[in-house]
User: What shape does this take?
Amino acid sequence: MLRLARRGENQDTLTRLAWHPTKGGAKGREMTKKKISFQRGESRCIGVLMDDAAIQKQVAEWVSEDHAKLLMLCQHHGIQEGPIMFYQLALTLARELYPEPKKRGRKSKWTLLNKGALVVEVERLVNPGDPAHGVEWACQQLAKHEPWASFLGIKEGGTFGPDPAEALRQIYYDFRDDKWAALSRDAFNMYEHEGTIAEWENMVTDFVRNPHPK
Assistant: This one.
């Protein structure tokens, strides 16, 4: 009986700590955060020799224990004591367990393929022996003509300014040393060697106009 009485006192102490964590000090706060656990239903067994009074007493102890821990959970989640506090707790836990799926960000229009195509197209226009016809000039020419003109008109988040030619120039310098840029140059050289430049240009148009084929 003495053990049962002390057990009841411990439940009251847990309840008070749940709503007044500062009284428990740092240890009380740590218990609120880390030590809350609920006994599994299958581990709670009624003894075969227990009479009705003993069963009622045991069940009452379990209810008291669970109630105290629910109060501690409410305090841990910042839920104020009130008539709907357990509803608010259930909703809080449900949102943690079953959160709304995060919305996927919009895919960038820039891909490895159209970046590689850009590198090739810029270098096709550049005249290494003429400073007036360098990368900046080549980007200005591409930005004025299809398919790049329409492509650059598609708005998306990023750090590029409103100047379409400047956007092409930045992409070119960021990507020109990438392995995909080298592969794109090799692919163009093959089309050029076979005399099928028109096929290359059709492929570039497809990469630019349809960056994410389904």
In short: The two ends are 73 Å apart (CA to CA). The chain has two domains: 2-35+47-86, 112-209.
